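Notes to self, Tetratricopeptide repeat protein:
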Amino acid sequence: MTDSINNAIGNTFTKLSYLIVDDFENFRLSMRQILRSCGADKIELVANASAAIQYCAYNHVDVVLCDYNLGEGKNGQHILEELRHKKLLKRSSLFLMVTAETSREMVMGAREYQPDGYLTKPINRAMMEKRLSGLLAQRNALLPINREIDRENFPEAISLCLQTLPSQPRYKTWLMKTLADLYYQVGDFSHALKIHDDVLGQRDLSWAKLGRGKILIATQNYDDAVTTLKELVSKHPDYMEAYDLLAEALEKQGRPTQAQQILEKAAEYSPNALLRHKHLATLAGSNQDMSTASEAWRKTVSLGTYSIHDNSEHYLALGQSLSDLSEGDSSSEGSAHADEALTILRRMEKRFADQDDIKLRSRIVQSRVHAGQGRMNEAEKALESVADGLDPELMDPEACLDYAKTLFRLGKEGEAKSLLNALASRCSDNPPLLQKIESLLDEPVGFRQKLQARSLNRDGIKAFEAGALDDAVSTFNQALEIVPSHAALNLNLVQVLMKKYKDAPGNRELLNRCQRCLEKLADLPEQHRQYRRFISLRKKLEGMRS
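result:
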C-alpha cells in the first residue's frame, strides 16, 4: 500500500518541469536533490531574477520554487510580479516563495501577487512532499478549467466549473470563487452576485465579500459597495485588495479625501505595493495634498528600482510635486524640496535616456523649480537647453500643459495663454485634457494660492446665498487678487454686482465693474465650462445698460 502511494506521488512529480531560483549554489543543489528523491526529473537551476524570467519566457514551467532574498537586484516578489504582469506563468503553474524571512512586510508584499504557497527554510523532503503533493493534486483536478481560462475561453471554463462542482466537493470553494470571477469577466453580474450572496449566506468568507463589493461597484451601487467593503476591512485589516476597492468606491461617490485616507492606511499595512503607492500619490495630488503626494511618489520611485512597473512618469510626477512644494518657499525646507526635485529629474534623464522627450520634460520642470526659488537665470537656461523641442505643434499634450505652467511661473502669461488656447483647439475632442487646460487658465498659480482662492470662493458663495452681498463682493475680490483671470470667480462677482444693482438701480458704477470683470474673460475659449454662462451674463449686462 505504501509503495503504491509513493509510486503515485513519484509519477505526479516525474511528469512536471521545475525551476529553482536561489542565489546560493549549495541551496539550489540541495533543492534539486530533494525534488529528485520525490521522483522529479526536469529541473532547471538559476541564480538570479533575469535568468529566471528569461527561462520562463521560452519554457513552460509547472512549478517555480523561488527564494525571496536573491542578493542585489530583484527579489522573489519582483520575479512573481513580472511573471504575472507578462503572463509568463500559466494558471496551472505553481509559484512557491521560499524564504527564511517571515517579516510582515515581506509576506504582505509577496502576497499582493498571490503566490500559491510558502516554504520556510530549512526544507527537507517530508516538508516538500507534503506541501507540493496537496497543491499538485488540486492542480491536476482543476487543470481542464485552468487551460480554458488561459485560452480566455471563459464560457467553456464556466461550463467545466459547473460540471466539476458535483464531482469535486473537496475543491468547492475554489470552484465557486472561480465561477464567480468568470461570470464577472463575461459581464454576467447577476449570476456572479448570486454566487457571492449564496456563499455569504452560509459563511462570512472574505473573498465572497470582496467579490460582492467588486460587483456592486461595477453596477454603480456605490453606497452598498462602501458598506460591504468597510465591513470587510474592519474584520480583516490585512486583506489588502479590500482597501483598493473601497478607495475606488469612495472615489466614485465623490469622496476623494476619504479614499485617500483608506489608501494611506493600506500603505502602512503593506508598504511594498508600488501600484497602490502610485494610486495614493495621484489621488493626494488631485486633493492638493502635495506633502502626501510627494511622499507617495517618492515611495513609488524607490519601489520601482527593480520592478517591472518602473516608469519615467513616476520620476516626473515626483519632480512636479516637489516643485509645487518648493515654489515661493525660501525656507530651508523649501530649498531642500527644490534640490530633491532637481536631483530626481537628473536621475530620470540618465535612467530613461533612451526615451523620447525625457530631457525636454525634465528641463521644463527644472525651469519651474528654479523660477519657484527666484533663480530666473537658471530657469531660462534650463529652457534654452531644450529650445529646439519647444514646438507646441509637435509637443505631447501633457508636455504642453507642463510648459504652459512653467511659462506662467516665468511671468510669460501671454505666451502661456496662447499656448493653451492653441492646445484646446488641437485637442477639442479630449474632454479630460480640456478640463486640465481650463483649470490651468483659471488658476495659473502655485497649489497654496489655489487652496486659498478656492476657500475664498466657497466663502463668497455662502455669503451670497445668505444675502450678505457686500461680504460676498469683498470675498470674491480677495480671491481675484490671487487668480485675476479665474472664469468662475469673475462670473460669481458679476452675479453679485448685478443683484446689488437690482437693489440700487441708479448705481451705474456697479455695471461698470461688471463690464471690467467680463472684459478679463474676452479670450475665454468656447470649450471652457463657463463659456455659456459668460455669454449669458454678457447679454444680460447689455440689457441692463441699454
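- Residues 154-270 form a domain with the Serine Threonine Protein Phosphatase 5, Tetratricopeptide repeat fold (CATH 1.25.40.10).
- The CA atoms of residues 155 and 444 lie 52 Å apart.
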